[in-house]
Design a protein that fits this description.
Layout lengths: L4 E8 L18 H17 L5 E9 L7 H14 L1 E12 L6 H10 L3 E7 L3 H6 L6 H14 L2 E8 L7 H11 L3 E6 L7 H8 L7 H17 L3 E4 L2 E3 L6 H7 L4 E4 L4 E4 L2 E5 L3 H5 L3 E4 L3 H14 L4 E2 H6 L8 H9 L2 E4 L2 E4 L7 H8 L1
Parallel strand pairs: 1-2, 1-9, 2-3, 3-4, 4-5, 5-6
Antiparallel strand pairs: 6-8, 7-8, 10-11, 11-12, 13-15, 14-15
Length: about 375
C-alpha cells in the first residue's frame, strides 16, 4: 500500500453462542450491552485523527451480523465522519448464517459494504453440530445464495482437520458453484481453555492425523484450482481480482488501525493493541508492543513465505539478517523447498502444509 493509505479494522466481540473451538475475544451479551459497546467504539473512532486515505475496511468478530441496524449505522456514520474513504475501497463484513438475513445484506450494501465473508465452516450437519455452530447446511446455503444475489464479491470460510470430515473439497466446489469468489480454509486449531481442547484430552473429539490432513488439504487445493481459484496464501484461494485486499495489506506491512476490544493497530512502524476485556477497553487501556529488528525479521519471513509475494533478501539484510548464511536456507534451495527469483525467495506451494517447519528452520 502507498504511505498515504490505511486499512481500518472494526472488532465486534459478540456472538449468540461461542463455538466450541473459539479462542477469540467474544461475548454473549444482550442488545443493551451491545449498545453500550458501540457507544465506546464510536467514541474511539471519533478520537482518531489521520490524513491517510482508507483503502479497506473490515468488520470482524465475534459476529458482526449480530448487530442491530441502528448500531451498524452508527459505526458507518462515524467512519464517514472521520475518514476519507476511497471510492473503490474494499469494505468487508463477516456474517454467520444464523444471524444474517436478506434484509441485512441489503442494508450492508446500502451502507457501502461490497464484500461479504460467510462463516460456513462446513456443509455437513454432523460436523456443524460437533463444533458448536448454530446453523445447519440448509441455512448456510441460503445465506450464501442471498449474499451472491446482492454482492459480486463473496467469500466463505471452511474448517479443515476434523477426523470424520472427508468432504471439505466438495463443500468448496459447491460454494464456488453458488457464486463464491473466495475461499478461506483454515486448519482447526485447538486452544487451551476451549471446550474442544477438553474433549480432545478426554478422547471424545478427534482430529485428523498428519497424513490424512495432508490428503484433505491436497484435495482441496486441487479442487479449487480446477474451479478457477488460485492459491495466493496458504489458507486463501480466490478468483483473480477477488483476493482480500485487507488481508494483503496486513501481509505487506501496510498501515492499519483497529477499533474495538482486542483490536490491533500498526502505524508508522509501531504496534499497539486494545485491551481484551470490555471494562479495560472502556477505560482506554492500550498495550504497546515492543518493536525490534528481530520481530520484524520473523514477521517478514512468516508472512512472506505463506503468501505469493515471498521475502526480499535485501530487506532482511537491511535488518541485520543475511539469510544466505543460514545452512537450512541453502539446503531448502538445493532441495526445491524454496526458490529464488528477482532478489526474493518463495516457498514452493507443494510444501505449504509444512510451512511452519520451514519458517521455524529459517529463524
Amino acid at each position: 500500500m502507498k504511505n498515504n493509505e490505511i486499512s481500518v479494522y472494526i472488532h465486534i466481540p459478540f456472538c449468540e453462542r461461542k463455538c466450541k473451538y473459539c479462542a477469540f475475544v467474544s461475548y454473549c451479551l444482550d442488545e443493551k450491552k451491545q449498545d453500550e459497546y458501540v457507544e465506546h467504539l464510536v467514541k474511539e473512532i471519533n478520537s482518531f485523527k489521520t490524513d491517510k486515505i482508507v483503502k479497506t475496511i473490515y468488520f470482524g468478530g465475534g459476529t458482526p451480523s449480530i448487530l442491530s441496524e441502528k448500531n451498524i449505522r452508527k459505526i458507518f456514520d462515524a467512519l464517514h465522519k472521520n475518514f476519507t474513504i476511497k471510492k473503490n475501497a474494499e469494505i468487508t463484513i463477516e456474517v454467520n448464517p444464523n444471524s444474517v438475513t436478506k434484509e441485512k445484506f441489503e442494508l450492508y450494501r446500502h451502507l457501502g459494504v461490497n464484500r461479504v465473508s460467510v462463516g460456513v465452516q462446513s456443509l455437513n450437519d454432523w460436523t456443524l453440530k460437533k463444533i458448536g455452530r448454530l446453523h445447519n447446511r440448509k441455512m448456510a446455503i441460503r445465506a450464501v445464495k442471498d449474499a451472491c444475489k446482492i454482492f459480486d464479491n463473496v467469500s466463505a470460510d471452511l474448517i479443515l482437520g476434523l477426523e470424520n470430515e472427508k468432504n471439505t473439497h466438495k463443500f468448496a466446489k459447491k460454494l464456488v458453484k453458488l457464486g463464491v469468489k473466495h475461499i478461506s480454509s483454515y486448519l482447526l486449531e485447538i486452544h487451551e481453555g476451549t471446550p474442544i481442547f477438553d474433549s480432545v484430552k478426554k478422547g471424545t473429539f478427534h482430529l485428523a492425523n498428519d497424513d490424512k490432513l495432508a490428503k484433505l488439504y491436497a484435495k482441496l487445493v486441487t479442487t479449487l484450482k480446477k474451479c478457477g481459484l488460485w492459491q495466493y496464501e496458504v489458507s486463501n484461494f480466490a478468483v483473480k481480482g477477488f483476493e482480500s485486499q485487507h488481508n494483503i495489506n496486513y501481509w505487506i506491512y501496510g498501515d492499519y488501525v483497529g477499533f474495538g476490544a482486542s483490536a490491533h493497530s500498526f502505524l508508522d512502524g509501531k504496534r499497539k493493541q486494545n485491551a481484551n476485556s470490555l471494562l479495560d477497553y472502556y477505560d482506554n487501556v492500550v498495550i504497546n508492543d515492543e518493536n525490534t529488528s528481530k520481530t520484524a525479521i520473523e514477521e517478514k519471513i512468516f508472512l512472506g513465505l505463506r503468501c505469493f509475494f515471498g521475502v526480499s533478501v535485501k530487506e532482511l539484510k537491511s535488518l541485520g539478517y543475511d539469510i544466505k548464511k543460514n545452512a537450512n536456507y541453502l539446503d531448502f534451495i538445493a532441495k526445491g523447498v524454496l526458490f529464488e527469483e528477482n532478489g526474493r525467495f518463495f516457498l514452493n506451494d507443494k510444501y505449504y502444509l509444512v510451512s511452519d517447519f520451514v519458517i521455524n528452520s529459517l529463524l
